[in-house]
From TrEMBL:
<dbReference type="InterPro" id="IPR004839">
    <property type="entry name" value="Aminotransferase_I/II_large"/>
</dbReference>
<dbReference type="Pfam" id="PF00155">
    <property type="entry name" value="Aminotran_1_2"/>
</dbReference>
<dbReference type="InterPro" id="IPR015421">
    <property type="entry name" value="PyrdxlP-dep_Trfase_major"/>
</dbReference>
<keyword id="KW-0368">Histidine biosynthesis</keyword>
<keyword id="KW-0032">Aminotransferase</keyword>
<keyword id="KW-0663">Pyridoxal phosphate</keyword>
<feature type="domain" description="Aminotransferase class I/classII large">
    <location>
        <begin position="50"/>
        <end position="401"/>
    </location>
</feature>
<keyword id="KW-0808">Transferase</keyword>
<protein>
    <recommendedName>
        <fullName>histidinol-phosphate transaminase</fullName>
        <ecNumber>2.6.1.9</ecNumber>
    </recommendedName>
</protein>
<comment type="pathway">
    <text>Amino-acid biosynthesis; L-histidine biosynthesis; L-histidine from 5-phospho-alpha-D-ribose 1-diphosphate: step 7/9.</text>
</comment>
<dbReference type="GO" id="GO:0004400">
    <property type="term" value="F:histidinol-phosphate transaminase activity"/>
</dbReference>
<dbReference type="InterPro" id="IPR015424">
    <property type="entry name" value="PyrdxlP-dep_Trfase"/>
</dbReference>
<dbReference type="InterPro" id="IPR001917">
    <property type="entry name" value="Aminotrans_II_pyridoxalP_BS"/>
</dbReference>
<dbReference type="InterPro" id="IPR015422">
    <property type="entry name" value="PyrdxlP-dep_Trfase_small"/>
</dbReference>
<dbReference type="GO" id="GO:0030170">
    <property type="term" value="F:pyridoxal phosphate binding"/>
</dbReference>
<comment type="similarity">
    <text>Belongs to the class-II pyridoxal-phosphate-dependent aminotransferase family.</text>
</comment>
<dbReference type="InterPro" id="IPR005861">
    <property type="entry name" value="HisP_aminotrans"/>
</dbReference>
Length: 410
């Protein structure tokens, strides 16, 4: 059985020739048994969408008719120009890389994750190490690439942090671990990982593989820092370590702070030899001309200014949302680091009670199905009992969310 086949469409097949051919036997067993990633949009597509950590304030591009995509000038009948509208140069300058050769452009971070696994881990033998609760695609890509997953859970003490001794012990014990995926700030934890802990993994002499730091949400943490609330005076992005560490890849995306999830543009920062391996392996012309054009606009000074303005507004909206969640008696703690554009809040079995995952699941479904307001149920994740993850919306969307939670939990 191939999972997820549309039965109606399949019934339209006229014949299944030749008789000896069985698709199930042709597919690699790990692909056949794959539980595909269920992205937020698979479940609900309409309504107030506070489920996918998108940027509720829109793209970091000039709006209105001032800046239409110049269809004629882009020469869309030609394959994309390798200069990609100067995207690598702009990304290198934004993240203080020594040179554009320290930058890889991917089809979203999700392609970067998959490509790294394809390049640096051997199917059927290699392993990756992840620290749950974490972003689900690391595991799904591992299943596709026939890689085993070793899990070293995050420590949980109100916030979430790396268990560095356990990670380093796992790496020492298993030479087949080829890649370590760290997420900072984490999804769904929202917790920034201190760089001295990341460095302890990079410096582990028992580990000959690569460390990937996924910084999809880093601009929200940088805003916290610039407000003087956290990590003042220290580097918080692992980009600062790239010029020093040959075993580090930092991945970022334009899908979150830049509000450009639709164009599918991911960035990876690493030393030039590592970047070259990724470039040698990716599909030709993988970044479309329209994506490169729009991404270059977003990474130009006015786009960056707009991104920072939107991030500032979202951080303000997040503070208001957290304060209002705190006033609903049947909700518990807002857990995690709150360093990103979402929060995780506990649904309790009653005022002052215990986190209740069954109730969280019911509330999530009722919100989506009956009231068209979609958050994400994360209650089954380790350390996240009873938790809903709420992406920060506009002030009005957040108000709708609070009103609805108050009503359903009354
Ligand atoms: C931690 C993390 N990494 C990567 C991604 C995917 O980013 P992209 O849209 O660039 O594929 C997400 C999306 O939710 C994420 O949360």
């Amino acid at each position: 059985m191939i999972r997820g086949v549309d039965q109606r469409a399949d019934s339209l097949v006229r014949e299944r020739r030749p008789a000896h051919f069985k698709l199930e036997q042709a597919v690699r067993p790990n692909i056949l048994s794959l539980a595909p990633y269920r992205c937020a949009r698979d479940d609900f597509q309409e309504g107030v969408l506070l489920d996918a950590n998108e940027n509720a304030l829109g793209p970091s591009l000039s709006s209105g008719s001032e800046q239409p995509v110049p269809v004629d000038a882009l020469e869309l009948h030609r394959y994309p120009h390798p200069a990609l509208h100067g995207l690598r140069e702009s990304a290198a300058s934004l993240r203080s890389m020594p040179d554009p050769h320290f930058v890889f452009i991917g089809v979203g971070s999700d392609e970067v994750i998959d490509l790294i696994q394809r390049c640096f881990a051997r199917p059927g033998r290699g392993k990756i190490l992840v620290c749950p609760p974490t972003y689900g695609m690391y595991k799904v890509s591992a299943a596709i690439n026939d890689l085993e997953v070793v899990q070293v859970p995050l420590r949980f003490d109100g916030s979430f942090g790396l268990d560095v001794p356990a990670i380093n012990a796992a790496l020492a014990a298993d030479p087949d671990i080829a890649l370590v995926f760290l997420c900072s700030p984490g999804n769904p934890t929202g917790s920034l990982l201190p760089l001295d802990e990341v460095r302890q993994v990079l410096d582990n002499a028992n580990f000959n593989g690569l460390v990937i730091v996924d910084e999809a949400y880093i601009d929200f943490a940088l805003e916290e820092q610039s407000l003087g609330r956290k990590n003042v005076g220290t580097d918080i992005s692992a980009c600062s370590l790239v010029p020093d560490y040959a075993n580090l890849i930092v991945s970022q995306t334009l899908s979150k702070s830049f509000g450009l999830a639709a164009i599918r543009c991911g960035l990876a920062f690493a030393q030039p030899a590592t970047i070259q391996v990724l470039n040698n392996t990716k599909a030709p012309y993988s970044i479309s001309t329209t994506t490169a054009y729009l991404a270059a606009q977003a990474l130009a000074p006015p786009g960056i200014a707009k991104m920072r303005e939107n991030v500032r507004q979202l951080v303000e909206n997040r503070d208001t949302l957290i304060a209002e969640l705190g006033r609903i008696p049947a909700l518990g703690r807002v857990i995690g680091g709150n360093d990103a554009n979402f929060v995780m809040v506990e649904v309790l079995d009653g005022p002052g009670g215990k986190p209740d995952s069954a109730r969280a699941a019911t509330v999530y479904l009722t919100m989506a199905q009956e009231f068209d307001l979609v958050v994400r149920d994360r209650s089954k994740e380790p350390g996240c009992d009873g938790c809903l993850r709420i992406s920060i919306g506009t002030a009005d969307e957040n108000k709708q969310c609070i009103t609805l939670l108050e009503k359903l939990l009354a």
